């Protein structure tokens, strides 16, 4: 495993970069959008909830940051054509894409495999894995335009070592880890795209609170405190690193 927690990013690290972030309306995705912009990037934020995206937009205004492009999309019902349209719009607006952070996800139910509702299982798989796969595949043509670009998938500790009652969420993260390994090998010699995963660890988010309702959130790092790892993977200092899992903490 590689840790990005001690990385110290130069202020102009992402100057002239265009980065798309999913799950950009709250939590880690929101903070990643703010951070990437503060380091010079143009940011596109995808999210399910328009009001959350608008709240995020107001934070950009409050911090005097360049305004992001917002796109509301529900990964539960989105189809491949929807993702292809996003790729076409990115190409038309920017002519390239330098980075993609696949961060959107849901926890689903914490219960045994025996008792897991199959429709809920499919919902978690669709949002956490299948839609990220389809979006990534649709964006590959614009990611191949720069000399180097970075795809980052959000992983989890339970996507590396199985844990009872984490069901569909854990399986979706195991699948994500496998996709990173396969896609990185496929792209390594045919493009300048590197593909990695990042495990945020325990962070003060709504999903974490849902998973551990008795936990004191004040004992956890907030999303801003783990951004060094995200900057590392999106910037030129991670050139040559692909197919890896990065620890944010």
List keywords for this structure.
eight-stranded parallel beta sheet, Rossmann fold, 249 residues, alpha/beta, single chain
What would your notes on this structure say?
The protein is of the alpha/beta class. It has one domain: 3-Layer(aba) Sandwich (Rossmann fold). Helix content is 41%, strand content 15%. The chain is built from seven helices and eight strands. The protein has an eight-stranded parallel sheet with strand order 1-8-7-6-5-2-3-4, sandwiched between helices. Strand 3, helix 2 (50-62) and strand 4 (69-72) form a beta-alpha-beta unit. Helix 3 runs parallel beside helix 4 (118-143) and helix 4 runs parallel beside helix 5. The longest helix has 26 residues, at 118-143. The model has no long low-confidence stretch (mean pLDDT 93).
Identify the CATH architecture.
Answer: 3-Layer(aba) Sandwich
Query: What letter string, H or E per element, gives the SSE order?
Result: EEHEHEHEHEHEHHE
| Strand-residue proportion | 5-15%
Which fold name is given in CATH as the topology? Rossmann fold
H/I helix tally: 7
Low-confidence stretches: none
């Amino acid at each position: 495993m590689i840790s990005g927690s001690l990385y110290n990013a130069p202020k102009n690290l992402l100057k002239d970069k265009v980065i798309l972030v999913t799950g950009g309306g709250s939590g880690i995705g929101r903070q990643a959008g703010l951070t990437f912009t503060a380091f010079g990037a143009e940011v596109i934020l995808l999210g399910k909830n328009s009001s959350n995206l608008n709240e995020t937009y107001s934070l950009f205004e409050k911090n005097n940051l360049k305004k992001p492009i917002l796109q509301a999309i529900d990964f539960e019902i989105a189809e491949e054509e929807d993702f292809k349209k996003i790729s076409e719009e990115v190409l038309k607006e920017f002519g390239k894409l330098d980075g993609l952070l696949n961060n959107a996800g849901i926890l689903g139910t914490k219960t045994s495999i025996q008792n897991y509702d199959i429709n809920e299982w499919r919902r978690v798989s669709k949002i956490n894995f299948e839609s990220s796969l389809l979006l990534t595949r649709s964006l590959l043509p614009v990611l191949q335009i720069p000399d180097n670009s970075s795809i980052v998938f959000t992983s989890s500790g339970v996507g590396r070592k199985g844990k009872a009652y984490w069901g569909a969420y854990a399986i979706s993260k195991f699948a994500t880890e496998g996709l990173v390994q396969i896609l990185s090998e496929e792209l390594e010699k045919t493009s300048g795209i590197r593909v990695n995963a990042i495990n945020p660890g325990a962070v003060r988010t709504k999903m974490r609170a849902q998973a551990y309702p008795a936990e004191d959130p004040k004992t956890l790092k907030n999303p801003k405190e783990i951004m060094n790892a995200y900057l590392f993977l999106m910037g030129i200092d991670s050139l040559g690193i692909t197919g890896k899992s990065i620890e944010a903490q």
